[in-house]
Amino acid sequence: MDINKRQFRKMFPNLAREVEGEKGKVRIASVRSDSEAGETAASRQFDGYDPDVVDFLRRCENEDQAEEIINYLESKKEVSREHANRLRKQLRQKGVRSFGPKKENDYYLRQAGF
Questions:
Q1: Residues 59 and 40 in one domain
Q2: Do 104 and 62 belong together in one domain?
Q3: Residue of 48, 52, 49 lying closest to 73 (CA atoms)
Q4: Angle 81-94/63-75 helices, nearest 10 degrees?
Q5: What range defines the domain where residue 79 resides?
Q6: Residue-wise pLDDT tens for the chain (114 aa)?
Q7: What's the pTM value of the predicted model, to 2 decimals?
């Protein structure tokens, strides 16, 4: 079947919008002939990534949980007293979602495309 773009748009208007639109496009960074090697490479997107205090706060449901996280990380010396105080102040004044949208279960898997 040999048709041009105009005919295609007339015959399949919704499909043409999808194909020609920007929404839903996926960038391909590389191509691998070995699918296992590709899966391994994709799963390494967060290799070596060390979550910080904000990553943990974004998993909290409420301010009590966030306060507990800040206290714990401060007690383990993973955040300084000054930084912990700034985080508490932001938490009190702006709420737990001021650190960003909630990170749901499987957040990192979804970000990696699984």
A1: no
A2: yes
A3: 52
A4: 180
A5: 53-111
A6: 678 888 988 988 888 888 887 666 666 655 555 666 656 655 566 667 778 899 899 999 999 999 999 999 999 999 999 999 999 999 999 999 999 888 887 776 677 666
A7: 0.57
Give the C-alpha separation, 88 to 61, whole Å: 16
Q: Are 58 and 99 in contact (CB under 8 A)?
A: yes
Q: Nearest-CA neighbor of 61 among 90, 101, 89? A: 101
| Distance, CA of 3 to CA of 11 (rounded, Å) | 10
Q: Residues with Cβ < 8 Å from 38, sequence gap 6 or more?
A: 30, 32
Write out the two tokens for 57: 């706060």
The pLDDT of residue 69: 96
| Amino acid sitting at position 39 | E
- Domains held by the chain: number: 2
